[in-house]
């Protein structure tokens, strides 16, 4: 069953910090998907302080070249999409998941977000297969440019991917052709508008199919002043029609071929979010995470010292012991 739009649901919106949505009768919300949303720190602002996520950097290859994208596979200090300390093998990714879930039980989501496009890397699927075998109840998430989404969707469904982020920077090929230099589709390079037409069609068709399969969709849009800043509302309208759950408008990071373009101001980004809000929920707490980020959104442990991580582990153990003591005490009082 598709998700409601912002005007269709009478439940609290977990992405809006408890904001009540307008009421509409005769709607039944899928409770399992509500739980997934409520525990996903990117889909729910409330969850960001309670639950964590872990990105597995197993996907170095990409099948498109965006003009703002610069990938780095040995990056220590930068905190942005497309960078990681190292590329993991699927077996290494599984070992990291084991350790992270043991040390940090607040992590509820395992995702693949690059540093390339996950759907262009077979290692993505192998890593998730290994993790699923050992942790059958963990929530899987993935980010993609959507070029291969219609073809790869059956594999995502089989693996139990519950949430999916698709980056859509334009639904007009003339605009997308300025943002993306080329797409590599089935081994052939398509440039400018020609490549944009292929990508946009696959993105929108893939989202429609994913929603039918019950996958919860987030759309990321990079706000590029002077190129797509007057067009983002059209993206919001298009994804509303396809029952996208939430939209994340991200500020351009000036680099690569777009190094000469300024980043949007916070006021410009907020105004664009406000203009899109009537059509689709807006994520307003994004931190534009690394491809190897883990922990809380506001506390990326990939960027922490070992000492700091150890202090967090100690605090978690102490909190768990206190919780056990409270449960035992309450149990004795009831008996």
From TrEMBL:
One of its GO terms (biological process) is molybdopterin cofactor biosynthetic process. Pfam families: Radical_SAM. Keywords: 4Fe-4S, Iron, Iron-sulfur, Lyase, Metal-binding, Nitrogen fixation, S-adenosyl-L-methionine. One of its GO terms (molecular function) is metal ion binding. Gene3D superfamilies: Aldolase class I. Pathway: Cofactor biosynthesis; Fe-Mo cofactor biosynthesis. SMART domains: Elp3. Its cofactor is [4Fe-4S] cluster. InterPro entries: Aldolase_TIM (IPR013785), Elp3/MiaA/NifB-like_rSAM (IPR006638), MoaA_NifB_PqqE_Fe-S-bd_CS (IPR000385), rSAM (IPR007197), rSAM_sf (IPR058240). Residues 48-292 form the Radical SAM core domain. CDD domains: Radical_SAM. Involved in the biosynthesis of the iron-molybdenum cofactor (FeMo-co or M-cluster) found in the dinitrogenase enzyme of the nitrogenase complex in nitrogen-fixing microorganisms. NifB catalyzes the crucial step of radical SAM-dependent carbide insertion that occurs concomitant with the insertion of a 9th sulfur and the rearrangement/coupling of two [4Fe-4S] clusters into a [8Fe-9S-C] cluster, the precursor to the M-cluster. Belongs to the radical SAM superfamily. NifB family. This is FeMo cofactor biosynthesis protein NifB. The lineage of its organism: Archaea, Methanobacteriati, Methanobacteriota, Stenosarchaea group, Methanomicrobia.
């Amino acid at each position: 069953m598709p998700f409601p739009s912002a005007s269709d649901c009478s439940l609290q919106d977990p992405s809006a910090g408890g904001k009540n949505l307008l009421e509409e009768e005769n709607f039944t919300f899928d409770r399992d998907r509500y739980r997934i949303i409520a525990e996903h720190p990117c889909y729910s602002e409330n969850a960001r302080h309670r639950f964590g996520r872990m990105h597995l950097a197993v996907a170095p290859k990409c099948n498109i070249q965006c003009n703002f994208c610069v990938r780095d596979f040995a990056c220590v200090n930068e905190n942005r999409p497309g960078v990681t300390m190292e590329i993991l093998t699927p077996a290494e990714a599984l070992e990291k998941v084991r350790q992270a879930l043991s040390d940090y039980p607040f992590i509820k989501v395992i995702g693949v977000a690059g540093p390339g496009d996950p759907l262009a890397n077979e290692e993505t699927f192998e890593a998730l297969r290994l993790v699923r075998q050992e942790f059958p109840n963990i929530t899987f998430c993935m980010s993609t440019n959507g070029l291969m989404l219609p073809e790869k969707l059956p594999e995502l469904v089989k693996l139990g991917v519950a949430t999916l982020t698709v980056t859509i920077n334009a639904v007009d090929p003339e605009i997308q052709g300025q943002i993306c230099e080329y797409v590599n589709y089935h081994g052939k390079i398509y440039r400018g508008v020609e490549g944009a037409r292929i990508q946009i069609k696959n993105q929108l068709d893939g989202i429609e199919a994913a929603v039918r399969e019950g996958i919860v969709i987030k759309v990321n849009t990079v706000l590029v002043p002077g190129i797509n800043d007057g067009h983002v509302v059209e993206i919001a309208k298009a994804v509303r029609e396809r029952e996208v759950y939430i939209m994340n408008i991200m500020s351009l990071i000036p680099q690569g071929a777009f190094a000469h373009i300024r980043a949007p101001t916070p006021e410009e980004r907020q105004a664009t979010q406000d203009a899109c809000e009537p059509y689709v929920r807006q994520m307003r707490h994004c931190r534009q995470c690394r491809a190897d980020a883990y922990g809380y959104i506001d506390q990326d442990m990939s960027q922490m010292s070992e000492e700091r991580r150890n202090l967090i582990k100690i605090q978690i153990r102490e909190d768990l012991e206190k919780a056990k003591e409270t449960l035992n005490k309450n149990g004795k009082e009831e008996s």
